Amino acid sequence: MTPPIRRAGPQDAAEMARLNAHVQGWHAAHYPEAFFPHPDPAALTAHFAARLAEPGVTCFLAGDPALGYALCALQERPLSVFSPPVCRLLVEHVAVAPQARRQGIGRALLAAARGLARDLGTDEILLDTWEGNREAHAFFQAEGFAVRRMLYRATP
Q: 9: how many CB neighbours lie within 10 A of its CB?
């Protein structure tokens, strides 16, 4: 049975920081030039508290104690000479505790994000993910997401 999903508040920042630890570790192991392996827990908690206070930012938590979270940010781009206006929901983080994977938590978190996107009247939902996270890519594709653009990197 999938645990209940609820919206996080600033009081949940420490839970988000706890759940972020394994994700941060994975990123640091695969991209050490871009990520610190062990950010200061107090600073990380403060970061999440500040994000939760931003207009347009919503986080969903699964379970109590939380077993996963999805951090979402509303993005609105006005009409420009290049493109029509767009309103999108960017899913910045999806984190599920390793012991709780393959139990429907990620699916429930993405369903909550989709519901939020519908409620906000967005045009699309985007996910931000790193190239090496192939297990997550398979999950995202199974949930109906497709690659939209790619970011290439080179050293000078």
A: 12
d(CA 110, CA 89): 11
Compute the distance between CA of residue 41 and CA of residue 136 in angstroms, rounded to an integer.
25
Residue 149: left (phi > 0), alpha (psi -120 to 50), or beta? beta
Sole residue written with tokens 């994700």: 23
CB 145 within 8 A of CB 128: no
How distant is the alpha carbon of residue 107 from its chain centre? 13
Burial zone of 28 (CB within 10 Å; 0-12 exposed, 13-18 middle, 19+ buried)? middle
CA dihedral 35, 9, 92, 85 (to 10 degrees): -140
Q: Which two tokens stand for residue 30?
A: 């695969």
Residues 6+ apart with CB under 8 A from 47: 13, 17
pLDDT digits (tens, 9 = 90+) for 47-56: 999 999 999 9
Per-residue pLDDT, 2: 84
Write down the pTM of the prediction: 0.93
Residue 143 phi, psi dihedral angles, 5° rounding:
-90, 10
Q: Which residues pair with 87 in a beta bridge?
A: 76
Angle at 74 between CA 69 and CA 80, to 5 degrees: 150
